[in-house]
Amino acid sequence: MPFSTILPKEKVLEKIEFTPRTPNDVTALVLHSTDRRNPSDYLRLSIENGFMIHLLVDKSGKVYAEPLFLTKIFIAAPGIDRESIHIAYEGTQESLLANPIQLTKLISIIDTLSEELDIPKTNQNVITKKGIFSHNQTKRRFGGFVDFSACGGELAMQSILKNLGGQFFEEDNWVDRFESGWSLKKESKQKLQESFHPTNGRGITKAAKIAIPSLEKDESDFPLESYRVRYTHRGKINPTCIVLHYTAIPDYFRSLKTLENRNLTASIMVDKDGKAYQLVDVLEDRAAAATGTNDNCIQIEIVALDTAELLVQTDQIEKIKLLVTELCKKYKIPFTNEDIASFSGIFSHTQAKKKWGGSIFLNAKDFDPGEEYMELILKSIDGKYFSEPDWKKRKDSDWAILYRNFQP
Questions:
Q1: How far, in Å, CA of 287 to CA of 283, rounded?
Q2: Where on the phi/psi map is residue 268: left (φ > 0), alpha (ψ -120 to 50), or beta?
Q3: Angle between helices 100-116 and 154-163 (to 10 degrees)
Q4: Helices 154-163 and 135-142 meet at what angle, rounded to 10?
Q5: Is the dihedral of CA 38, 404, 247, 358 positive or negative?
Q6: Do the Cβ atoms of 370 and 310 come closer than 8 Å?
Q7: Between vectors from CA 104 to CA 101 and to CA 105, what angle results, nearest 5°?
Q8: DSSP state for residue 384 in the 8-state scheme
Q9: For strand 84-89 and strand 28-33, is the pairing parallel, antiparallel, or unpaired?
Q10: What is the pTM of this model?
Q11: Which residue, 3, 295, 315, 384, is most buried by CB atoms nearer than 10 A?
Q12: Rounded CA separation 239/250 (Å)
C-alpha cells in the first residue's frame, strides 16, 4: 500500500524532499521501529522533522511504501542515507518478536531486497555501509541522531538475521568497534593500556615556564611536576578557542589518573579549591579531550562530579573566569560560544559532542559542563552567551546530535 493511504491529508507525499539515486547505489538496509506510535503518527512526525523512511510493516503484517523507494534518498540516518533503504516496523522489538505475522512479513521483505540488491545478510561491518543494520548501530557509527533510543533493536536484528541464514554480531564484535571513527565511542581497557606509550609530561619531559599568571607554579615559575599528566605528544596547535569540561570525578588526582588510563590529555585542570594546573609541557601541545576541537582549542578540565557541584564551588568559578580571560587575551579568542565550527570562542564539551560526537557519553540534553555553567562564566566575563537554539547552524543535519523533536 502507498504511504498516501495512511498519511494525513495535509502531508502530500510529493512534497517530501529527496535526492535521486539509482538502485545500484543501495548497499544497506536499515531497520527502524515506531516504538509506541501508530504508523500514521510516525510518518507525520517524520515528515514534520525533515525525515522519511521507505517501507513500513504494521502489526497486521500490511506493508506501506514510497512507490519509488529504490530511486529516492530519504534522510533518516545521516551518514548512511545514500546507501540505505529505511524499513520500519510498528511497535517495539519485543512486540515484533511476539507477533509472528508481522515478523514473517518483515523477514520476507528483507530477504527479497537483500537477494535482489546483493546486500550481505550480516551486521558485522557498518563502516562499509554494506549489510543489514539497526538504526541503533548506524547512530553509533555515523551520529546524526536525535536521541539514543535503541531504534531497530539488536534482539530484532538477531532474530531476523538468524531466520535469513545470515550472521549476527554482538556490538563488541562489530568491525573496529573499539577503534576511532565512531560517534559513540566504546573503549577497551586492554587496548587503551596497550596503546598508551607516554612520551611527555610528569617525570618524562621538562615543562616550559608558566606563561599564564593564574596557573600554579613552583619557585622557578615552572608547572608543579606532581600535578602534571603523562601523555603522548600529538603535535602543536595555534590556539583559537577554549573548551570547558568537567571531570565527572570529584578528585584531582583520580581525574588525572583517568586521563592517563584512557590515553587522553587536557591542557589545564582546575581543582575544587580554585587552583589551576598546567598539565602539558606547553599550552600549545595538542590535547586529546574533545573530538573535533583538539587541533584548535585549549582543553580545560574542571574537577567536579556534575554541573550542580560546579555551580557551588565559588573559588573554582572565580579561577575559571580569571583563567579564561587571561587565555582569551593571550590568544585573541572572542568571548562567545556562538559558532563552534569556526573554532573561535569559548565552548562547552557538550557543544563539541553535539557537533562531532566522538565520546563515550552522548545521550543527554545538557552535560559537560552544562549550559547553566557556561552561561554563568560567559556572562560574568562580559561575553556573549548563546543558548542552544541560537548556536550557529544548529538545525543543520551535519551535527552528531541533531536538533529536532523526533526521528524515525
A1: 9
A2: beta
A3: 70
A4: 120
A5: positive
A6: yes
A7: 85
A8: B
A9: parallel
A10: 0.92
A11: 3
A12: 28
